[in-house]
């Protein structure tokens, strides 16, 4: 009888332990390549959608990459719009400054473009995180909030270099290993226009002043 | 004795079943909002990186959204590069044609831009899926493969409309419910230039011919 009771106890224990063991097996590789690739429960933290400036700050902080549009200088497509993917960071999770910092190399096509024409538009979307999938929002639905930031991409000044470096390296530790032969430098988007698509009714315009004045609780 | 043997059998059964039950509980909401938002084991299926044309076809098929660069026609930023997020599809998972189809409305900023200047560049990245996070690749690392497709965005012809519709609605079922007041129409990117960044050494150029001739095994 004692043996049978232990058998039942084992059944319960096995039932309780198995999911934990499976979870350990399938857990994503954290700490390698980057931190905060949309896997820290962003869904619970979306600000009220009517506070467009705060939503914009939220998206900038949650995302650690975006797509940058520039004017192409490449042979055959000169003058046409060009798009590329860049890693970025405005600071640690929940502690972002709102400034999108980049780690760029003159070897990148976008950087060649920016040398001639510094105007650029950066777009970031909650589709980059688990948010939209979790709530079943299509990437093109405004409910899958995304933002569009226009301005110019400029090299970061000496005074701002530490902030840029810390913001980027905390979210993108792999950057510390990138080869110096690529002449990496810190840059940022100097924002002049902001559009927020987070609800039906069309894009909401947010001024840079409203954007930088928005504060997380 | 028979009772105790059943106890041990229950333990084994519980151990085997529990993860499945947990998986059912935590499974993401499928069928709402979109299908194939990077959650179908893309990592196992990445083609050999040296086959740049096939990698490009893979990324186009796996991604169901991208960022499109256009030239802005909007007041205050006219002539500058603009970027926006668009849903897309080249067909069902593993059965893509390589043609990125869009479902657009004249109310969208990008569409206003395209009316004046149809040149556009679309970029898609495996950072949109679980691939890069799983292997710890930074979004800006070439190992987190991304592609850049340049060309023109044009309305889909009558003959191609069914293909466009099926491709899009199978991956974006929510589109079937979008309001007709937005005058949605099917469009596609007519590709002229392709760059593939999937390994160190810079972007690989793939011709549209190589791209469309690539076949999945």
From TrEMBL, chains A, B:
<dbReference type="GO" id="GO:0005768">
    <property type="term" value="C:endosome"/>
</dbReference>
<dbReference type="InterPro" id="IPR014631">
    <property type="entry name" value="CREG"/>
</dbReference>
<feature type="signal peptide">
    <location>
        <begin position="1"/>
        <end position="31"/>
    </location>
</feature>
<feature type="domain" description="CREG-like beta-barrel">
    <location>
        <begin position="47"/>
        <end position="213"/>
    </location>
</feature>
<protein>
    <submittedName>
        <fullName>Cellular repressor of E1A stimulated genes 1</fullName>
    </submittedName>
</protein>
<keyword id="KW-0325">Glycoprotein</keyword>
<keyword id="KW-0964">Secreted</keyword>
<keyword id="KW-0732">Signal</keyword>
<dbReference type="GO" id="GO:0005615">
    <property type="term" value="C:extracellular space"/>
</dbReference>
<dbReference type="InterPro" id="IPR012349">
    <property type="entry name" value="Split_barrel_FMN-bd"/>
</dbReference>
<dbReference type="GO" id="GO:0006355">
    <property type="term" value="P:regulation of DNA-templated transcription"/>
</dbReference>
<dbReference type="GO" id="GO:0006897">
    <property type="term" value="P:endocytosis"/>
</dbReference>
<dbReference type="GO" id="GO:0006914">
    <property type="term" value="P:autophagy"/>
</dbReference>
<dbReference type="GO" id="GO:0007042">
    <property type="term" value="P:lysosomal lumen acidification"/>
</dbReference>
<dbReference type="GO" id="GO:0005764">
    <property type="term" value="C:lysosome"/>
</dbReference>
<dbReference type="GO" id="GO:0005667">
    <property type="term" value="C:transcription regulator complex"/>
</dbReference>
<dbReference type="InterPro" id="IPR055343">
    <property type="entry name" value="CREG_beta-barrel"/>
</dbReference>
<comment type="similarity">
    <text>Belongs to the CREG family.</text>
</comment>
<dbReference type="Pfam" id="PF13883">
    <property type="entry name" value="CREG_beta-barrel"/>
</dbReference>
């Amino acid at each position: 009888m004692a043996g049978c009771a232990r058998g039942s106890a084992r059944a319960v224990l096995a039932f309780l332990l198995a999911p934990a063991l499976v979870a350990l097996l399938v857990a994503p590789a954290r700490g390698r390549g980057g931190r905060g690739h949309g896997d820290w429960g962003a869904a619970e933290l979306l600000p009220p959608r009517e506070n467009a400036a705060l939503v914009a700050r939220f998206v900038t902080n949650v995302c650690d990459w975006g797509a940058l549009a520039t004017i192409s200088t490449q042979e055959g497509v000169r003058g046409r719009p060009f798009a590329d993917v860049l890693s970025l960071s405005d600071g640690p999770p929940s502690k972002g400054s709102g400034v999108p910092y980049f780690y760029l190399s003159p070897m990148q096509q976008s950087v060649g473009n920016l040398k001639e024409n510094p105007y650029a538009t950066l777009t970031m979307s909650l589709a980059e995180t688990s948010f939209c999938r979790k709530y079943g929002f299509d990437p093109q639905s405004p409910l899958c909030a995304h933002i569009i930031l226009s301005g110019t991409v400029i090299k970061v000044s000496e005074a701002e270099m530490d902030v840029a470096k810390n913001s980027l390296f905390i979210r993108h530790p792999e950057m510390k290993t990138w080869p110096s032969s690529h002449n990496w430098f810190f840059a940022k988007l100097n924002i002049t226009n902001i559009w927020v698509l987070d609800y039906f009714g069309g894009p909401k315009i947010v001024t840079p002043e409203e954007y930088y004045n928005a504060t997380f609780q």
